[in-house]
Amino acid sequence: MLPNPSGVHFLSAHAVIRQLIRSSGVGPGDLVIDFGAGPGTLTAPLAATGSRILAIERDPAFVRKLNRRFADQPLVKVVHADLRTVPLPSRDFSVVASIPYAVSTVLLRRLLSRPRRSLVGADLVVEWGFARRIVAARTTETAKWAAKYELRIARRIPANCFRPAPRVDSAHLVIRRR
Which one, of 30, 27, 72, 76, lies nearest residue 56 by Cα? Predict the structure, then answer.
């Protein structure tokens, strides 16, 4: 395996991408956030649903590419920001994203611990072990999340579905507001 100093792994399996979008159930008029949008691998098929998309990306090179790629698509707004600090919408929204493993816990805390329950649902690609811990954990924090949201693993996503491949498999984590 070649070294990957950036730690960035892009989901490249079209069948997995289609399944994420289908599972999310998003459609015209919905507000959807793609955290860590990268080159727009999920942003483009999300835009095809007629949803309004916020493509959140912190890397300036990807932000420039996203702005060029989606310049003629009024339903896609590219936001140059860090997913750990970007303001979240106050209206109902969904998340469909393949998020960086290193910020999975931070993002879940931001999404699931908010006093206002504006998160409708999320279909996230996360590290396999992380997903298993989240759905099985019985901590005070995860108990609070489980009271407001259903959390389940839809499927395991093999490492070879990414370019470059990470060292571990991923999971399609489904979160739905109760």
Answer: 76
Does a structural domain hold residue 4? Answer: no
Domain that holds residue 24: 10-177
- What pTM value is reported for the model? 0.95
What is the model's pLDDT at position 149?
95
82 is an annotated ligand-binding site residue: yes
Report angle CA 128, 131, 136 to the nearest 5 degrees: 125
Distance CA 31, CA 51 (A): 6
8 Å CB contact between 101 and 126: yes
What pLDDT digit, counting tens, does each position of 125-137 carry?
A: 999 999 999 999 7
Give the CB-side neighbour count of residue 84, counting CA atoms within 13 A.
8
Identify which of 74, 67, 21, 7 has the alpha carbon closest to the alpha carbon of residue 40.
67
- Average pLDDT of the residues in 167-177: 97
Q: Identify the CATH number of the domain in which residue 76 sits.
A: 3.40.50.150
* Residue 9 labelled as part of a binding site: yes
Residue 3 lies in a domain: no
Does any domain span residue 2?
no
Domain count for the chain: 1
Q: Encoding tokens for residue 18? A: 């289609």
